[in-house]
Design a protein that fits this description.
Elements (H helix, E strand, L loop, with lengths): L1 E2 L5 H7 L3 E5 L3 H14 L3 E6 L8 H14 L4 E8 L2 H10 L3 E4 L6 H17 L3 E6 L3 E2 L19 H11 L3 E4 L4 E2 L10 H10 L5 E3 L7 H10 L1 E6 L1 H16 L5 H23 L6
Parallel strand pairs: 1-4, 2-3, 2-11, 3-4, 4-5, 5-6, 6-8, 7-9, 8-10, 10-11
């Protein structure tokens, strides 16, 4: 069934588990993620991000997921992640995405508030939910060019500011910066768990989101969830798992697309199930 964030995250927050966002850029990835959700009876969030659109256009992702989501009996949120422009966010809403993240975290605080307040009003009229980011999560793939990676703590989310931000924008979920980064880690991340707790206490009604989850240790995930994280974002791990399955098949002389498709589905499914069990979302559908 197709739902939005408000139909899956409040329960996760209350019961101290997390719902995973797994970006799925083609039919095989979507089949793997939904297959995992069905087998484990887990709610799931699926979609794409603006940075991934060169690999799979937004309408193709929507077509690959929306109809599958409507046919299954587990809750599926169709989420557009890290939307960087108002125009693309509007396109996602018109295509039928039930949730989106408008990432204005590199703007000034005042501009971040203004943009999110405007888009949240529009998205709610569509029946969709909105996630924002406050503070800024850096990018491992661009460490040399990303100032947030030189001193990540300088861009961490401030709990007091988080309360003001939510009160002014009415966003449905908030992604926070507490020590993670996007992409494959080149160093061991150190999460600020006390900050997660402080933000949770400042905005108890707003589910918290942790971006840059691929590469964290199992203990990192568990402790972050216990501290108050209700949504975890994963892409690199399932992306690499699917590619690894294809590479191994090609090395075994299985070179036809029909040889490779189900292998990708099963690899993505296995990695997704691993994360769902870690997040504690099994049986919560």
């Amino acid at each position: 069934m197709l739902v939005n964030l408000n139909q899956v995250l409040p329960k996760a927050q209350k019961e101290h588990y997390a719902v995973g966002l797994f970006n799925a850029l083609n039919t095989e990835m979507a089949r793997g993620v939904i297959g995992a959700a069905e087998e484990l009876r887990s709610p799931v969030i699926m979609g794409s991000a603006e940075i991934l659109l060169p690999f799979s256009p937004l309408e193709c992702v929507c077509d690959a997921i929306k109809h599958m989501a409507r046919r299954t009996d587990v809750p599926v949120v169709l989420h557009y992640d890290h939307g960087l422009t108002f125009e693309k966010c509007m396109e996602a809403l018109k295509l039928g995405f039930t949730s989106l993240m408008y990432d204005c975290s590199t703007d000034t605080y005042e501009e971040n508030v203004r943009k999110l307040a405007e888009l949240t009003r529009i998205a709610h009229a569509f029946g969709a939910t909105v996630e924002a980011e406050l503070g800024h999560v850096g990018d491992n793939d661009h460490m040399e060019d990303d100032p947030t990676m030189q001193d990540p703590s300088a861009f961490y989310t401030d709990p007091v500011q988080a309360k003001d931000f939510v009160n002014k924008t009415h966003v449905d979920a908030l992604a926070i910066a507490v020590g993670t980064a996007h992409g494959a880690y080149r160093f061991t991340p150190k999460l600020d768990y006390d900050r997660i707790i402080a933000i949770r206490e400042a905005i108890p009604e707003t589910p918290l989101v942790l971006h840059g989850g691929s590469g964290l240790s199992d203990d990192d995930f568990r402790q972050a969830i216990q501290c108050g994280i209700a949504k975890m974002n994963i892409f690199t791990d399932i992306n690499v798992a699917g590619a690894r399955a294809i590479r191994e098949a090609v090395q075994s002389d299985k070179c036809a697309m029909t040889d490779l498709m189900n292998l990708q589905v099963e690899a993505v499914k296995a990695e997704t199930m691993k994360k769902m069990l870690l997040f504690g979302s099994q049986g919560k559908a």
